[in-house]
Amino acid sequence: MAPESLLAAVDLGSNSFRLEIGRVGTHQRIERVEYLKETVRQGNGLNEQQELTQDAMQRGWDCLARFGERLAGFAPEQVRAVATQTLREARNRDVFIERANALLGFPIEVISGEEEARLIYRGVSSLLPASPQRRLVVDIGGRSTEVIIGQHGQARQVASYPIGSVAWSTRFFPDGVLSRANFSAAIKAAQEALAQTVSAYPGTAWDCAYASSGTANAVGDILAANGHSEKMITPDSLRWLHSQLMEAGHVDRIKLAGLKEDRRAVIAGGLSILIAALGLLGIRELEVAQGALRQGALHDLLAHEPPEDREAAEIAALQQDFRIDTAHAQRVRRVAQWAWQSLDAQLPASSLSAHALDAASHLHEIGMRIALSAYHRHGAYIVEHCSAATWSVELRRRITQLVLGHQGKLRKLEAAIEDPGVAWPLLALRLAVQLCHARREPDLKDMQLRRSGDLFELITPPGWASSYPQSAQLLRTEAAAWQKTPWTLQLQLR
DSSP labels for 408-442? Predict the structure, then answer.
């Protein structure tokens, strides 16, 4: 019998069938346990009568039989299976669904385009940092494209259009030829199909834009592998990719790093729609998002709205998972905040550096669960790669730097430490760790910390050094460490 804490989502897409199993962790997080994906290409199996061919149905049944074996023992309330555009269109879907239900062991729901869009947004937002921004999400699937505007975890405006990477590749590149004429026809047809988005989704209605699902991930992987931005799609990068495909001339001759074989046949159709969407919506930067429909389905099964302060809940969950001494973490956080404010950093409390300092203070000992030796390196790795926290790329990088640099030599951050946005919060955190070394509240009465240019000065009240000789010695070692950086820590220990 499957543990009660497991949930599963099955996504019967037009290009691929996917199974995602997640565990409900602490603070209502859903942590991935297993992910299975099979390229079924049911979208290619619709004949002229809009019926699935026998081969297309068999490919789907074979996949669902394998998924069904994995889901044996799950209770009905633990699984949600949804089918999208291909089965919305297929006139003989009932024939497919009847046997598919039996093979999977759970009922399959053919959802509307609007419900698909809602689930996509919920899935995307579940893996993004909490933000009041109005988010535009564009999801190009195999036979449908969803466009959504949402805020926080809720979709506010949704639309679904019957165009996708499989449908467009079949229609405009049937023989695999990647000619200028084929691309022009595909882009023009996509512009016509998406024309309503111009008035329905004006640039004034959203603050930032994301792309989700297979086409976005495929394009993002290609761009990253060829020296472009790792997670950002731009009109210039799409023009580059467009030229690369036309130069290849045929899908069989595409030689691009980052292109997975299962995407080769449908990349041209997906790219054509992506080019049209960016042009119509006036998108200058489209960030590739990790969330998708299946994560939305999992969160629907959980039937639990994310906490209002999701980052605080995520940090608390990480502290629990890695058995962090939370009382000590709070102590270090308080002293680090005192140091940060004393520096007169002239950076707002909401700045990236202040935000990173707060999170790093909570999590600086996260690596101790792995090993005490070099725990700061273990901690930095966990922060950098942990999927449970939905920090932005920039914030995650800064937190990682602070956790890595909070103890030991500073040369490991040699390049980054020249930046005040790294050096100042790092000094605050390192001083807090040293002053709290005895794991009790340090005596900060009449202690002063100030900054002038690249000079930091720490002054203690008379008698402090003799009362706290170990703390004084740790501070001397700390001052020596900073001598090898562009910054100077000067001590007046009295």
Answer: S-SGGGTTGGGSHHHHHHHHHHHHHHHHTTTSS--
Q: How many helices (H) and strands (E) would you count in the chain?
A: 19, 14
Burial of 161 (0-12, 13-18, 19+ CB in 10 A): buried
Nearest alpha carbon to residue 487 among 436, 425, 398, 443? 425
This prediction's pTM: 0.74
Phi-psi region of 176 (alpha: psi -120 to 50; beta: other; left: phi over 0): left
Q: Are 265 and 208 in contact (CB under 8 A)?
A: no
pLDDT at 11: 97
Side-chain-side CA neighbours of 280 within 13 Å: the count stands at 23
Q: Where are any strands of DSSP class E within 40-115?
A: 79-83, 108-110
Summarised one tens digit per residue, pLDDT across range 331-371 is: 999 999 999 999 865 655 558 899 999 999 999 999 999 99
pLDDT band at 2 (very low <50, low <70, confident <90, very high): very low
First-residue to last-residue Cα distance in the chain:
66
At 158, give phi and psi (nearest 5°). Answer: -135, 150
pLDDT tens digits for range 175-213: 999 999 999 999 999 999 999 999 999 999 999 999 998
